[in-house]
Amino acid sequence: MINLILPHRCSVKRGVSDYSSGSPVTVWKEIARDVPCLFSRRDWLEQHNDVAATNAKASGTIYFDPDADIKTNDAVTVPGIGVFSIGSEGGLVNDYLGNAHHIEYAARQTGAA
C-alpha cells in the first residue's frame, strides 16, 4: 500500500569488499533498480545566495517500501533529484497495529543524478 505514495524510482548501490587484487578494495555494486521511494528535503547545506542551485546539496529523508533492501551507507540515485548516502538514522517504521509500514532513513546528497 505504501507504494501508492512513493512517486520516485531509484537505484541502490552497496559498497562491497573485493579481494581480487589481494588486498581489500571497496567497489560499488548495484543491488536494486526501479525501487519505489520518496525523497523529502529537510534543509539546504549551502546558501543559495552565494552558490548556483546545482551546487547546493540537500539533506532529508528517503522513504521506501518495507520490503526494500536498504542499509546504512548505501548510495541511492533518484533520477532528476540526486545521489544520496543513506545515514544511520532510521529504519523500519510500523503502523499503529504493529505491522511493517515503511522504511525511512536520513540521507545526505553526495552528487547530482
Number of helices: 0
Please trace the helix and strand order, writing H or E for each element: EEEEEE
Distance between the termini: 27 Å
The pLDDT mean sits at: 85
Low-confidence stretches: 46-53
- Calculate Rg over CA atoms: 16 Å
Task: Tell me the layout of helices and strands.
Layout: E1 8-18, E2 25-44, E3 58-64, E4 75-78, E5 82-94, E6 100-111
Antiparallel strand pairs: 1-2, 1-4, 2-3, 3-6, 4-5, 5-6
Would you write up a description of this structure?
The chain is mainly beta and about 110 residues long. It is built from no helices and six strands. It has strands at about 10-20, 25-45, 60-65, 75-80, 80-95, 100-110. The protein is globular and about 50 Å long. It starts with 7 loop residues before the first strand and ends with a strand.
In a few lines, what is going on in this structure?
The chain is mainly beta and 113 residues long.
Give a quick set of tags describing it.
single chain; 113 residues; mainly beta; 6 strands; 0% helix
